[in-house]
Amino acid sequence: MQLLQFSNIMPVLNTKQVLVIYTGGTIGMTRNEQGAYCPSPNKFIEWMKNIPDMHVESLAREYCKEKIQTNTFAIPYENHTVIIYTIVEYNPLLDSSNMSQENWKRIANDIGENYEKYDGFVVLHGTDTLPYTASILSFMLENLDKTVIVTGAQIPIFEQRSDAKDNFLSSLIFAAIYQIPEVCVCFGNVLLRGNRTIKSSTDQLKAFSSPNYSLLGKVGIEVNLYMEHLLKPETRNNFHVNSDLNANVTVFKFHPAATPDMLETCLKSDIDGVILLSYGIGNIPTNTRIIKILEDALNRGIIIVNVTECVQGTVNSTYETGKICKDIGILPGFDITTEAALTKLIYVLGFKNLSLDEKKTMMMTNLRGEISKS
């Protein structure tokens, strides 16, 4: 993607402000003495100053509304627009494998505190847990009507061959130029709904996919946004960050070697919710002890959601082994991803003023486009 070069006689008609929250991840890592990639504080921002496509200092000095800072950058875009972006680097920088609910809260609150100051937001993040962060932000950022993009890279930006610049630049354009009322993932030249995204490859530059929902956009010779696939909120209430989370949840995966004792140990722990990863369209073993263990957990008020282990498809009760889940009160996850199911449960359980039945209803309701039906 080539950015425009402004001549001295071409006036800038408007500027767009983007806040970039740099949490860590491969995009800004360097190799340590052992040759392993690790976070490198204070290097990413300095490196950006040396990439012509990512910063034109003269534009930054001319069009920044406030006094230019060392973390402020400017790039020209079409229709005589200048994108001004400010990078805030977290300390410490995180490999995304170390991401926690407290980090989610920090990201969401930083967006909330700066919501009125910027036209859009980009979160730079490691790829391993990126779908979890994109999903939880989609729930925490209530009544969102500005663009939030989560992105990263498979290869650090410091390497000679890297996907980092294209991912970052495309994310900046979507965040600055378009008003997309949802949290998205921009990676490998495609724009995906955040809570529909999974990491599908460890070694391809197109590392993410959305198996149960259409692309929101695509970057090629032109930047295309598919408006018909975007969320269309029925009401425009005031934006709000809901950081009341309850992460007292777990995931249990059925497999042929799983025993009732394993399930009982999982459900005997002090938890409030469980995501069951089941076979196919929601099938589980019909072992009577397994069913009894699940029923006892449900009677104790634990919310259990049935999610298929398959990448694509939905949960339904076609088979006896799946219908039994519905009959005893396990909630169907429909076509939700594991990442979205887990983070949605964490979000829903955080509502202290709701009854158990109301929380169950929320789990089966399409809140942010995370499921295809309720």
From TrEMBL:
Q: Which PROSITE patterns does the record cross-reference, listed alphabetically?
A: ASN_GLN_ASE_1, ASN_GLN_ASE_2, ASN_GLN_ASE_3
Provide the species name: Nicrophorus vespilloides (Boreal carrion beetle)
Assigned EC number: 3.5.1.1
The protein's name: asparaginase
Q: Where is the L-asparaginase N-terminal domain?
A: 17-228
According to its UniProt record, this protein's enzyme class is hydrolase
Does Endoplasmic reticulum show up as a keyword for this record? no
User: What Gene3D superfamilies does the record point to?
Assistant: 3.40.50.40, L-asparaginase, N-terminal domain
Tell me the superkingdom of the source: Eukaryota
Q: Does the keyword Electron transport apply?
A: no
Q: SMART domains, from UniProt?
A: Asparaginase (SM00870)
Keywords per UniProt: Hydrolase
Q: Please list the residue ranges annotated as the Asparaginase/glutaminase C-terminal domain.
A: 248-363
Active-site residues, as the UniProt record annotates them: T26, T127
